[in-house]
Design a protein that fits this description.
Chain A is built from seven helices and no strands. Chain A has about 240 residues and is an all-alpha fold. Chain B has about 600 residues and is an alpha/beta fold. In chain B, strand 20 and strand 21 (about 465-470) form a beta hairpin. The longest helix of chain B has 19 residues, at about 475-490. At the A-B interface, helix 1, helix 5, helix 6 and helix 7 of A face helix 3, strand 5, strand 10, helix 13 and strand 20 of B.
Amino acid sequence: MSDENAPSPTRRQLFKGLALAPMAAAGIASCSRGSDKPPSPGGGAAADYKPTFFNAAEWAFVLAACDRLIPPDDVGPGALQAGVPEFIDRHMQTPYASGDIWYMQGPFVEAAPQFGYQGRLPVRDILRVGMQAIDAKCRKSADGKTFAQLDHAEQEKTLKAAEAGKLELDNISAKEFFTQLLAETRMGYFCDPKHGGNKHMAAWKMIGYPGMRADYTDWVEVRDRPYPLPPVDLSGKRG
Amino acid sequence: MAIVKPKVDAVIVGMGWTGAIMAKELTDAGLSVVALERGPDRDTQPDFAYPRVVDELEGSIHRKFLQSLSKETITARHSQKDTAVPYRQMGSFKPGTGVGGAGSHWSGCHFRALREDFNLRSNVKQRYGAKFIPEAMSIADFPLSYEDLEPHFDHFEYVCGTSGKAGVLNGVKVAGGNPFEGSRSRDFPLAPNRNYLGAELFYKAARDMGYSPYPIPASNASAPYVNPYGCQMGPCNYCGFCSDYGCLNYSKASPNASILPVLRLRKEFELRAHAQVLRVNLDDSKKRATGVTYLDAEGRETEQPADLVLLCAFSLYNVHLMLLSGIGRPYDPVSNTGTVGRNYSYQNLNRVTLFFDESVQANPFIGIGGGGTTFDDLNGNQLDNAKAGFIGGGVIWARQPGAGPIRGITTAPGVPNWGSAWKKGVKDAFRHSFYYEVQGACMSYRTNYLDLDPTYRDAYGRPLLRMTFDWDDNEIRASQFLVNKALEMCKTLNPKALSGDAKKPGEHYNITRYQSTHTCGGAIMGADPKTSALNRYLQSWDVPNVFAPGANAFPQNNGYNPTGMVGALSYWAAKAIREQYIKSPGALVQA
């Protein structure tokens, strides 16, 4: 009696087919613009995108920080080539970044780190307030330069201090800011391209992640050779 | 003025595993049933349909199948002298929401408790003497036996299409299964799933150490299957999206795939989604429930009168509703009186990760939630607790529910968190590492409990549930002992690098790190109404027309995932309602 809710063999084959073949028929919106072009040197994919959440100063910070957190090298693309800043700018405009799934009621009190972030800022404001605070600190101590204007070594030193909780900021914990910034950067690097990052699935290719294939029946017991197929994204494109 | 709905025989709060089982059993008995689910309605189509369901960002970051903490959460603290703060971001445990509940985004590990898990306190006393149990440790016997539950374990496995291998069949040991398990009346409905590399190597390493590995019983179908209700399941395709995700393939058992297809067709059954239950209503005697009050989808206060109230929410929220409604006396840890909130326990989960070179194709993106292998040589009566130095055992297992880079890539020791060295670290680790886990029991203590928070409120204005919980030295010793055993075993596989996260002396519970969703106790079943909230049929001692099936009923937690036990207990309670309670409503056990 429940068969109406179970997939017919035909439908199951269709699933399988979709998982292994390009999924033009899947009806998912295509990747964001720029995705069909090869990564350009220098600014990479980030250069083509105009932010709609961050202001100019924040955007300069995001570009500089992403470039340090995931720099381009022989191993794989950098965060800028992969479109990570675009991802973050778009992600900040989702309900998640405005605290939709967090408990946001006060009182907000100090607690041991085992209890997690206890402040009242959602992710998008943790990033904004944190960047403003770091820029303000940099301007005071580095001849008026913002974080983005520091040289790479100075930027890395600042990020390391934030990560270690050794950067005193007004208004916000540098460590919490860094934790969220790094999490967003990694998400943008590894997300499905539909969210704006991971352009051309380059980060998936770097680590050998087959993406959204979601069917490995034929491969679970293969031991003697690497999984051979390139990644597939949610829109059905092959990497 | 609240809207008042026509009275029904039974109202069910929550439509996860326990709610779906109760609804099926009670409509079978001819009762009219209304189920109130706080989240949306969900079904394989369209909610878990490929490809959208496998979006890691939506599933594991936006957590679209889990409850939003903005509506309901808990507060937590380590001890009674601390001020609790809210569980603001999801970490340690992940309650579900919506039809299917946590039963739609679970992995599929489907164990039966060991025979000796049922009478833990008397068993420990008998083996090691009464003084072996610390005074603050409040472990207790379940008020029923393995044999009582065997038919219900069996039935639930057949409903779920559990894939595994019996180790003891009608009292006779069978090669390939768990030789230490309680006797089964039948083998599993389906044969074990195939092994990924990490599981295959686990068999080798465990046998080298003299252990008895067996396939983890997995409610992820290894072959086409039709369950006793006529619901059809398809073979698991190892897609790698189990934990956090609904199953795209009708392979992982869930209320949605395994029970609701039948329920949805029943006239006696009505499901109302987006129905947030606020409290159970009691009459003036406070000994009888008259129904529940909930907010409907538009937020209107609505009363649903019923003769029978079944609390089938996630374990923590069952306790919450009992405390908010005045069902049973709240536990007071100082005077050691009262019952509701008592004996909260958790799971002692630890992980070891093995890193190999490029010749080893670990392929962690290939995943099957409940599949893999484990052994019980350090669990139950196989472990000499006097020698090991702690109470409660655990299992070590190989399990690979599916990894993706958004869910996180564990890098080898010494790799930084960012920069070029991190990129190289994730590239080296991703395809060539896998992990084993230690899943230890967690004892209950007078000092670990649940009550209502004095400060914080949920989106509906109710006090949040407050959790007072920390690791006891007993669990820290267990973690170190079991992780050391796991590391010892892993070394035989000659990994390039190895990392383990055994708890350190004095280490506190960290609610930000995912460990497991096995929150147990708080409204426990027992033989004594002074120390348990529920009798052996999961019926409230104080308000006999309220039943509260769930892991909240466990007096302490054993080394297994709770779902198999939770399902079996629900069928056990349903049988008592059908065969005893309906004929003669009232207390099924005299206090």
